[in-house]
Write a structure and sequence with these properties.
400 residues; alpha/beta; Nucleotidyltransferase, domain 5; eight-stranded mixed beta sheet; 39% helix; binds adenosine-5'-diphosphate; nucleotide-binding; Aliphatic_acid_kin_short-chain; kinase; magnesium; cytoplasm
């Protein structure tokens, strides 16, 4: 019998999972996969711990019309293929923990009800995150389930970083800067502590640049401020999300263009960012490969905004000891890294052109006033670690 932790990352159009075998204090990935294209072009893909393909199955749209159908297909696949593996707990990525949850939490009915109250704060994600928790609680009420939040890492923010310049009662009602990508920042900060402890305890900016993108300022490994705020729309532009925007534009679209709030929401989440700016693609690879001026503009806009955000966060930190790139773009696009650091050269950051793109983690040239790193993120492993730690704490509490 082998004990494992299952990690679930469920969204509205995809559901991903990763299974980790518990090996003493370590967690070894043994299966990973998921269902994507729910309701349009559904497919189920699973690989084993070494990356070998175990399943690659396409479905008709009608066979997997919604997230709930996808969960059942996935659960059936897992039940048939788990062999001698025993899942001892399930860790879930939950986007919103509101102002309450500064730590991962074991889910019971009261917690689930509380998490449902945050649905209006993240309508696109929260519902999809909670759905599999509910289904699993019905099927396997004995199985411990743990919610790990994208917001928790930012809950220790000073008040200055948590507020909007709006009437005070709105803050009390929950209109505040929550911040996201916390599991990624926590993982990367932990890796930095292992590989460069001398800077990890200092002033660090991490740029999580994926299809969603944000930056975080950390002092002594703790989040001080971040660019996403009340929703995952704020901050730097993203694949299809607009990033920071004059709120007057939203008023204009509703009042003078006659758009409904839902139409505006759709535009800001799905038609803006790199896609909106270029009119071509939300994918940085396609934009870098294009010779169209709109593509060049979108890339230049993205790099400029990321550099500006880094500079603003350095103000919060009172300086900068290290700048870290992570996530799809941050890890894989040397040209984007080059341009962002070039925009920060006034602050004394110098990138080594030899190191950038060579596969090494440390990218600053000698004489750079801050270290520059690229560190791959692993949000699923962070969730698995949190889940294991919480189980251990509960077990030692029960023994005490
Ligand atoms: P998420 O997990 O938020 O879906 P990722 O962190 O996987 O996103 O990042 C996805 C994005 O990373 C893609 O949209 C693409 O623009 C970018 N990306 C991935 N590989 C490369 C690459 N080799 N060069 C440039 N951009 C890349």
């Amino acid at each position: 019998m082998r004990d494992s932790i299952l990690v679930v990352n469920a969204g509205s159009s995809s559901i991903k999972f990763k299974l980790y075998r518990i090996e003493g204090a370590d967690l070894a990935p043994s299966l990973s996969g998921g269902m994507s294209g729910i309701g349009s072009t559904p497919s189920l893909k699973v690989t084993d711990g070494s990356g070998a393909l175990l399943e690659d199955r396409r479905f008709e749209a009608g066979e997997v019309p919604d997230a709930s159908a996808a969960q059942h297909h996935l659960a059936d696949w897992l039940l048939h293929h788990l062999g001698d593996t025993t899942v001892v707990a399930v860790g879930h990525r939950v986007v919103h923990g509101g102002a309450d949850f500064a730590e991962p939490v074991l889910i019971d009915d009261a917690v689930l009800r509380r998490l449902e109250t945050f649905i209006p704060l993240a309508p696109l994600h929260q519902l999809g995150n909670l759905d599999p928790i509910r289904v699993l609680r019905q099927r396997r009420p004995d199985l411990p389930q743990v919610a790990c939040f994208d917001t928790s890492f930012h809950r220790g923010h000073p008040e200055l970083s948590d507020r909007f310049a709006l009437p005070r009662f709105l803050h009390d009602e929950g209109v505040r800067r929550y911040g996201f990508h916390g599991l990624s920042y926590e993982y990367v900060a932990g890796r930095l502590r292992e590989i460069a402890p001398e800077v990890a305890s200092g002033r660090v900016v991490i740029a999580h640049l994926g299809s969603g993108a944000s930056l975080c300022a950390l002092k002594e490994g703790r989040s001080q401020e971040t660019t996403m705020s009340f929703t995952a729309l704020d901050g730097v532009p993203m694949g299809t999300r607009c990033g920071a925007l004059d709120p007057g534009v939203v008023l204009h679209l509703i009042e003078h263009r006659g758009m409904t709030p839902a139409e505006v929401g759709h535009m800001l989440y799905y038609e803006s960012g790199l896609l909106g700016l270029s009119g071509l693609s939300n994918d940085v690879r396609a934009l870098l490969a294009s010779d169209r001026p709109e593509a060049a503009l979108a890339v230049a806009f993205f790099c400029r905004r990321v550099a500006q955000a880094a500079a603003a966060l350095a103000v919060t930190l009172g300086g900068l000891d290290a700048f870290v790139f992570t996530a799809g773009i941050g890890e894989n696009a040397p040209e984007i890294r080059r341009r962002i650091i070039a925009d920060l050269s006034w602050a004394g950051l110098i990138l080594s052109n030899d190191a950038n793109g060579s596969g090494v983690a440390r990218l600053d040239a000698s004489g750079s006033r801050a270290q520059i790193w690229v560190i791959p993120t692993d949000e699923e492993l962070m969730i698995a670690k949190h889940t294991m730690r919480l189980l251990d704490r509960i077990a030692s509490g029960a023994r005490a």
